[in-house]
Predict the 3D structure of the following.
Amino acid sequence: MLDPIVLVETDMESLHSQLGGLQYDNAPESAAIAKIKKEYGLFINGQFTSPKDHKSFFTINPATEEKLSKISQADANDVDAAVQSAKRAYEKVWSKTTGPERAKYLFRIARLIQERSRELAVTETLDNGKPIRETRDIDVPLAAAHFFYYAGWADKLSFAGYGADPKPIGVAGQIIPWNFPLLMAAWKLAPALAAGNTCVLKPAETTPLTALLLAEILQQAELPDGVVNIITGDGSTGAALVEHPDVNKIAFTGSTGVGRMIQQRIAGSGKHLTLELGGKGANIVFEDAPIDEMVEGIIDGIFFNQGHVCCAGSRLLVQESIAEDVLRRLMRRVEQLRVGDPMDKNTDVGAVNSAEQLARISELTATGEEEGATRLTSTCVLPSKGFWFPPTVFTNVSQSHRIAREEIFGPVLSMLTFRTPEEAVQKANNTNYGLACGVWSEKGSRTLWVAERLRAGVIWANTYNKFDPTSPFGGVRESGFGREGGRQGLEAYLNV
Ligand code: NAI
Ligand code: MG
């Protein structure tokens, strides 16, 4: 039987005495690079509306609670204007624009994202709270990569495997969450435009700024008016978009609850639908796995983006024979994670995106101890302002615990053990979700045996959270349906 606390505490003491007073200098990125405006209107028909014409709300920096900008709240009339603009652009312009011409716009948008990458990264970090290292090295380059990749498909749709001359659907209503704001906008817009659809995109209410900056980039790229409309607002704006009769397709990424509601709302309407919802990914670790890489993979799987990741490896399944060793190494690594100012280039874990999300994480983790699990937490000092949660690992977790079943969407890992590959598969599949899993083993045949039996859309072998525009991503069961990325990602925007 493990005694995790004693084991980890002894190890931490020796780690601290070894590291002594070792300190990093601050390495802050400059907030001035972001050039955020005081207020924004809605982006409809290629122009920004006047902010005075709308009710408004503030978007804040979750690391400081400072107001960043005043954002327009789109009501049903605004949604209608955006949809009509997208419909006109579809009928008059975009459906008559050839594939090679559409590709030129997409390439241009990709290049402009690269040119303005630093501004985008800083804006994203300020608005979202995620570390600048991640926005700079992951969110923004991947967003550009998605536009580059789908630009390549725009004139080759007849080779995509969906018939000789596949047709677009029409007007796509796209609703995205706050965890990867710019990247999710790219995942939605790039394939839709490549396939010949026009779009109305609604970013999440806590992170609208990079979508509004993207609107400026679309103007710069001289994308025809109305081909993309970007409207800000909360769930009521999203609901109005879902219900608009002239929207032909809804693409949604967010919570399973809202996804389920959307599916009910549009049932029988003939609207196309794709849903990318939550997850409770299992990261399965066998005793023969390369241990140092595997520990990095576990860390990356759950602490990347503060755990605000639908495919996070939030359940760690460790083979019992190595459980003690893995836990010791894991907690040693957790203690080394640098938590704090997201604008500092040394930061590993930034701020939780909102007070609401922090409350959800706190509530759910409290049930961990109430139900009998053991909480191990980084001793990092958290900033006094903003929304923060320390990297946390639960041991002595049983499959019935809420922390083993429900999506926490925060930097919280639940560790369980198994003895045989059969037991690992049974435990990994014991979830209503089915988005992603990881398998760590030196033995290819074992990895393939396990992968074949896992019910999840994405399975990583000896790596985790690896994304590429050429590779389809999506879930099964309560994680949703439809694929984004790759050739398969075109299907969601073609009338097939
Ligand atoms: P949410 O599902 O409410 O928000 C996602 C998007 O949907 C936002 O743009 C929101 O404005 C919009 N929305 C909300 N209600 C709507 C409605 N009735 N009709 C149309 N659009 C609507 O997610 P929330 O509240 O921000 O997070 C709650 C939980 O959901 C998180 O704790 C996490 O577990 C999960 N989540 C999962 C995500 C994923 O990537 N799979 C992303 C965000 C949240
Ligand atoms: Mg914000």
In short: The mean pLDDT is 96. Residues 175-179, 202, 204-205, 234-235, 238-239, 242, 253-255, 258, 261-262, 276-278, 310, 357, 360, 407, 409 surround NAI (ligand 1) (CB under 6 Å). The chain is about 40% helix and 15% strand.
